[in-house]
Amino acid sequence: MRKVVLVLIVLAAAPLAAGLALAAVDDSGTRAQPAAAAPRAGIPAADKPGSPAGPPASRRPPDADRPEHRGAWRPRTPTIFRDATEEEIADIMAFTGEHLPWLCQDLEKMRQSDPDHFRQTCRRLRFEVSQLRSLKERDAAAFQKAIEERQLRLRALGLASKIRAATDAKEQEALTAALRQVLDKMFDAEMVTREANIRGIEERLETLRQELKARAAHRQEVRQKRLEEMLKGNPESVFAPPERPQPKK
Q: Looking at the structure, do residues 123 and 146 belong to the same domain, yes or no?
């Protein structure tokens, strides 16, 4: 009886052992390697030095190695994580030189003294300059208020520094009164800018609503165009955003 029980235990454990052995071997018959550490948030694995380009073979399209498909599946690095290019840096310097000269001077000094910090600052300024340029195109008056707000902020920082350094009570009181006035003006300019930004968002939202209605009305045309492009083997029809249909006149 005891021998029978031992035999049954061995037979029951055999499938489990076989499953573990198979799990340790990949499809090619070689022992599987330990899983690589997960990439840091926001940094695609394909962009790390020494990492294979694109997703693993099991997740790649079956015809991804075809010339017309190579690179189509590569992940895009978000702009916020991408270093500023030389062209973008030149654009930032030109914009700040025209509209924010004090900032441009600080950037020039930073470029000479700390190039790495300079490039990081330009990466952050890229979005702000883009927003300011967009505001200038939509509302010139609000754009001037946005520039005024930044000028007032610089003046407020200077007054605050003087207040901290002052030792005379009357001087501190006078500087504090001046700082209050600057902060009031800065708040008013900020409100004008924010109202203009809200109007821009509302206009963009209305445009998106109209585009959605137009797209729904052209469903058959969109589908037919996608079908034709896919049959031609054009990867853009799969990976690129679809074109916005134009309403019929």
A: no
